[in-house]
Amino acid sequence: MIRIVDIMGEELKWSNAEKKKQIEDAMVFLKTQMGKDANREAKDSIPITLTKAEVSDCVKRFNVLDSDKKGYVSLTDIRRAMRVSFHLHVFTKKNLLKLFEFDTLRR
User: Fold this and answer.
1) Residue 79 sits in the same domain as residue 98
2) Does 102 share its domain with 62?
3) Distances in Å between the alpha carbon of 4 and those of 15, 17, 23, 28, 61?
4) Residues near 93 by Cβ (< 8 Å), separated by ≥ 6?
5) Which of 47, 48, 44, 67 has the alpha carbon at shortest distance from 56?
6) 81 lies in which domain range?
7) Are residue 57 and residue 100 in the same domain, yes or no?
């Protein structure tokens, strides 16, 4: 990231103070909007009305999708789940709905 700020600073004629501010702002953004703490404040203020069993079920489903244990579910993870569960190799809205319909019918 420092290299990017150096390039942008050179292009936009930023002072060292501005470069430092840009790095600090970027770090705050990454920690609050992109990382594991993304939207934590909002999440913490929203009451959860799920039972412990429902939360446990959600965690299990998440962990199955997040097979690489990265802490988030990517589009690749969803595609992989669709291929494994339904042998679907084309990612379409219709196929995604099929995935959720199947999940609802299994309950």
Assistant:
1) yes
2) yes
3) 15, 15, 10, 16, 37
4) none
5) 48
6) 52-106
7) yes
pLDDT, tens digit only, all 107 positions of the chain: 788 899 999 999 999 999 999 999 988 888 777 766 666 666 677 777 888 888 888 888 888 888 888 888 888 888 788 777 766 566 666 766 666 665 444 44
Cα–Cα dist 80/63, whole Å = 13
Cα–Cα dist 23/54, whole Å? 40
- Number of domains, the chain: 2
**Secondary structure (H, E, C), the chain:** CHHHHHHHHHHHCCCHHHHHHHHHHHHHHHHHHHCCCCCHHHHHHCCCCCCHHHHHHHHHHHHHHCCCCCCCCCHHHHHHHHHHHHCCCCCCHHHHHHHHHHHHHHC
60 and 91, same domain (yes or no): yes
pTM over 0.85: no
